Amino acid sequence: VVTKIDMCPPNVLQETLKLLTRILKSPGCRKIPVLVQNTDDVVVTATNFTSERMCPVFQVSNVSGENLGLLKMFLNLLSTRVKCDASEPAEFQIDDTFSVPGVGTVVSGTLLQGQIKLNDTLLLGPDALGQFQPVPIRSIHRKRMPVREVRGGQTASFSLKKIKRASIRKGMVMVSSRIEPKACWEFEGEILVLHHPTTISVKYQAMVHVGSVRQTATIITMTQEHLRTGDKATVRFRFIKNPEYLKTDMRMVFREGRTKAVGNITKLFPHVSAVAQNTRHQRSAKKAQQDGGKHSVNPQNEPQKASKRNRRAKKMPDFDDGEGKEIAAVGKSSSESAVQSFSPSSPSLPTSASTTVAAAAAAN
Asked: Sorted alphabetically, which SUPFAM superfamilies does this protein's record hold (predicted)?
């Protein structure tokens, strides 16, 4: 569908149609483009659309409404490809988020399968750690009217309880707990390069579109050394910001600038959330192992290095309590005997001499 034909110059429109026709006829795509201009073209393209070789091209204007009737007629004539079963576990794809005053956080999108009723509890995620948290459905709106349930294939809006809008992003899902969802950092897909100016190699980054998921991914490995226009290969990608919820056989678009590639997801590499939770414990354990147990407690039989206080105490003379008391008693008795022997009443020494001896004994 080529839009904005009311404001596009005729020469730019013709160049765009030529480029689109060349891409559709390229060896990688091999489609037959058909410009739809009347109701007869609509009937022919809708009837042969299941062959997957014919590609109708509509030129519309959302402002003037030109050719919008032909596009709606074509969509109504198409047969239903997927039959939804209400017994399947619910899977809701979030396309947009809102913050409504007085209501709270509102998410809108498409219910891919199953059935969602009012007050049901679903798993919302994945977050930055790849985890899913339970959220109850407060209210359901479809085409601006409150409803009690929605079925697979329908679009709807849900009001969520106790959830901030900042914690929700486009590409997240709300699924039933029966699915046991797992987020993926890496996935493998078979892609076809529709156009690339030079060559694509490992560590090349581009925007990946899978359903409502839109995130930059890096090429980790490829079955070929280089990819050029028209090449097919099995490529392993890794998201650079957040893990995403994906399923096998989902269609994907790989683009960057003028680079365009399409393909399908063939293999998933689930992300284990417990690893993210225990990252800090693993780092501390690894650091302790590298240090060789420097900070661990020494065994009792292993000599320990004396502390600063103990080293200072070792420099002081160490006496036993009993020996200290004996030394003090001996010193005291010696001084007393000296004083008594050289007292002033002694006739052998003068008073001044006995006083000097007593003072010296007391000082000792």
From this structure: EF-Tu/eEF-1alpha/eIF2-gamma C-terminal domain, Translation proteins
